[in-house]
Amino acid sequence: MSEKVKVPTVGESISEVTIATWLKKDGDRVEMDEVIAELESDKATFELPSPKTGVLKIVKQEGDTVPIGEVICEIDTDAKGAAKAEAPKEAAKAAAAAPTASAAPKATGEVKEMKVPAVGESITEVTISTWLKKDGDFVSLDEVIAEVESDKATFELPAEAQGILKIVAKEGTTLPIGGLICKIEVAEGSPQPSSSKSPVSTASGSTPAGDTSYAAGHPSPAAGKILAEKGISSGQVSGTGVGGRITKEDAMNAQASQQKSPEAAAPAPAQQGMREETREKMSSMRRTIAKRLVAVKNETAMLTTFNEVDMKPVMDLRSRYKDKFKEKYGVGLGFMSFFTKAVCVALQEFPAVNSYIDGNEAVYHNYCDISIAVSTPRGLVVPVIRNAESMSMAEIEKEVVRLATRGRDGKLSIEEMTGGTFSITNGGVFGSMLSTPILNPPQSAILGMHNIVQRPIALNGEVVIRPIMYLALSYDHRIVDGKESVSFLVKVKELLEDPGRLILGV
Fold first, then answer.
1. Side-chain half-sphere CA neighbours of 391 within 13 A
2. Are 445 and 480 within 8 A, CB to CB?
3. DSSP state, 164?
4. Pairing mode, if any, of strands 144-149 and 163-167?
């Protein structure tokens, strides 16, 4: 008898899926409920279990796009070896169940509803990125069961009770803060681990040739997403997870080895005359960022004002003291500490630039929490330097290095990226001459730094060559007037062109 396996219904708006990976080969024997393939929709990646024990006959190949309900493969339950597999399998199940029946978890009747937690004052919704547990799995208290993404970061969702997981929101679903994610049927006790993971090897004392774990060399959905963003194939990464599966940590650590041999990762030059297009699905984080950036443009009266700064005084001071500074404080003296200090002084003089709109009210701050834009392999993140107005130059430089390192390693917490009152972004490190930075809601202003270029300027009636940087201040005109924005930027310019005022506080 042949069991036809069809593409299951995976969501109301999903009409087709793509076969990402066959984890078993055509003609392989498969067990009931064994995962045989990974399927992808436009919203998520999910696993396809075998409904029967038998011999696999593949109908659709990897990369094929298959409509919901169409046959993807067949399981021949009458094939030689398939029927024999049932007996030892059932026997092993019975043997495993007998000694542990008394240790089975006992339902209490209580149901714990897990809702989206508040993860930051400016975050109103999150997307379910990856379920690390399946519907019906037993989960322990505080065990990580899912990965959830906002436009700022990815964070883990721990179980709030022990029991049976009932998934409510599927992968790819976007939920508001407080939305229902899943339920846990609370249970006492815990399931006993099976004495054997492979019934066939228990019965025969050996493992059949070729019956290796399907997980070996395959990334988890979260790891696969990171590898795709880095342009690294799963074959270049060693998996440390169960059965050799590539974990999220393996994918994060793959960057270092990739950088050591750039020649291996460089694509072969295209043949002359070839015209190619490549399509890649946007990550959930990238889609959310895109949606929020459009919202900022539509919901604020954003304007940008510009000025230029002669960086020679700062560069001379930095050259004179950078060696002693590093020797004393253990960190380099960069430009960010000068700009952060100058911004803090100007914010205290022009408090509207350090405010935000909340409904019909304007909220002002007597402190300066400065958000700094950091480029990471997964996109732009904006960690916050808390109370920057009370920090020394050395303290600011140390905090910049710490936050930038954590950002590039993917270790920033939600708390480290929320609550900023003003942002600084430095497009100059990528060679930008001039730009109009976009606001970081709910903040009302952001300062854009750019590259430093030797330009001729008029100074004391003479034309001289000086290192000039263009500055751009984008602001929400609903709360910041033109006079305040221009005066703020002029104040920053004056402080940078006379850095002694920053040190003396005048």
1. 25
2. yes
3. E
4. unpaired
* pLDDT, average across residues 479-506: 90
Q: Which residue(s) pair with 184 in the sheet?
A: 112, 165
pLDDT in tens, 133-192: 999 899 988 888 988 887 666 778 889 989 999 999 988 888 888 889 999 998 887 665
For the annotated catalytic residues, the residue numbers are 477, 481
Q: How far apart are CA 405 and CA 127, in angstroms?
A: 25
Cα angle: 200, vertex 202, 205; to 5 degrees = 95
If one counts every other C-beta atom within 10 angstroms of the C-beta of residue 356, the result is: 21
CATH ID of 105-187, from 2.30.29.30, 3.40.1280.10, 2.60.120.10, 2.40.50.100:
2.40.50.100
Looking at the whole model, is its pTM more than 0.90? Answer: no
pLDDT, position 260: 47
Secondary structure of 299-319 as H, E, C letters: HCCEEEEEEEEECHHHHHHHH
What's the chain's length in residues? 506
Mean pLDDT in residue range 10-16? 65
Q: Which of 308, 301, 282 is nearest to 482 (CA)?
A: 301
Which two three-digit tokens encode residue 402?
């710490």
Q: Considering only CA atoms, which of 233, 221, 131, 123 is closest in space to residue 173?
A: 131
Parse the chain into domains and list their residue ranges: 1-96, 105-187, 301-504
Q: Which class in CATH covers the domain with range 1-96?
A: mainly beta
Q: Is the domain 301-504 a CATH 3.30.559.10 member?
A: yes
Contact (Cβ atoms closer than 8 angstroms) between residue 333 and residue 393? yes
Cis peptide before 269 (omega within 30 of 0): no
* Chain centroid, CA 415 distance in Å: 15
Whole-angstrom Cα distance, residue 188 to residue 440?
46
- Residues 199-249 have pLDDT tens digits of 433 333 334 444 444 456 667 656 776 777 777 877 777 777 656 767 767
444: CB partners within 8 A, 6+ apart: 352, 353, 354, 355, 356, 357, 475, 476, 479, 480
Torsion angle defined by CA atoms of residues 139, 140, 141 and 142, in that order, rounded to the nearest 10 degrees = -80
CATH topology match: 105-187 vs 301-504:
no
Supply 25's token pair: 């080969």
Amino acid at 87: A
277's torsion region: left (phi>0), alpha (psi -120 to 50) or beta?
Answer: beta
Closest to 59 measured CA to CA, from 74, 47, 48: 74
User: What is the DSSP annotation of 287-298?
Assistant: HHHHHHHHHHHH
349 close to 491: Cβ distance less than 8 angstroms:
yes
Beta strands in 414-490 (DSSP E): 422-426, 445-449, 452-459, 462-476
**Is there a contact between 72 and 5 (Cβ–Cβ < 8 Å)?**
yes
N-to-C CA span, the chain: 88
